[in-house]
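**User:** You know discrete backbone vocabularies at least as well as I do. Would you mind producing a protein record, from residues through to fold? Write it directly below this note and I will take it from there.

**Assistant:**
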Amino acid sequence: MGTTYLSIELTFDLIALAMGVILIFRAKDNYQRLYWGIIAFAIGAVMSWENIGWLMIVTDTPTYKFTDLLNIEKMLKWYSLASIVCLFPIISLSPGYFNHLRIFTFLLPPIIIITVGLCYLFFNGKITPINSLNEIIPNMGELDIKLRLIIFLLSIFIPLTFLVYPIISNKTYRKINNNMYAFIAFLFLFLGIYILFTLNINEFIFNLFGIISIIFTILFSIQYLRYENPFSDHIDMICEMNKEESYTKLPQTLPLFTTIETYFKEEHPFTDQNYNIDCLANLLGEKKHSISEAIKSGGFTGFREYINYRRLEYFKQLVAENSNKNVKELMYLCGFTSRATFYRNFSDKYGVSPSKYIENHSIKQ
């Protein structure tokens, strides 16, 4: 583990930290983006701190060896982060269901186990040295060995349960997309590396875990900068041919969402490029939080995703009514200000570019 490698990784750590800060400030009512920003910031900060420490160790001890297996501190760090990160696919599919209390409820088992582990380290502190797998069974009578094995097993089982759940459950307003499959694949990779990292640590596994962690963080931070919800699409925002009949028993929306839907369809306030959730809250005489919760009950991640959906739907309506206008004219009439954002959103949600959509519509006529 050379200083050059650690310096490069430290640079990526600081990039992840900076991206986390940007996401936090850009989150607004999108709690997923806020949580991911906090996670990215935390990962960047923790790994920056650790790599600075490793730079000092490597400088002083170039031949440093990794020997300690079932390291309780490393397992608790993994367990805390993995339990939160593995919730993102579930939260992505059910933005109207998950609030702060439900997230806390899901995380209660990891919180209890992590607290027990930290209390043991603080009040007892006895750690039996384990330098090979053969030393585990002879030391099974030791309290810390039992505790470390329990933490190890739970730190695999609980994140794994969170990962599998979205794949087997589809009673939601949203549909899994390729980004979520990539996210889940990354986490399964992490799980395998974590097992090796805990039971048979060496320099290569240590470096692999660190570099993949930071690449993973930066990669999906970019996705959250580009998209309101990068892991799933609302079923009303995908091609008709991709909608599945299995989406039959959907969650109930709040009555306020029906009011918002009616107002947006009839009045088209979103054509104002500066329209925001404050404008809607003032008009309806509701709190911003109530507006946001109502929109989330309809399966949308937040106000920004919903208003972009309405603008995209209005674009299709304008195409039918104004066949002589070009994409740029119609885009501005819908309320979009960025051509790149409009093209990306339209192509991602409907499977064709705006130009191709207009061309196909002209052919049908």
Notes: The chain has two domains: 3-234, 252-364.
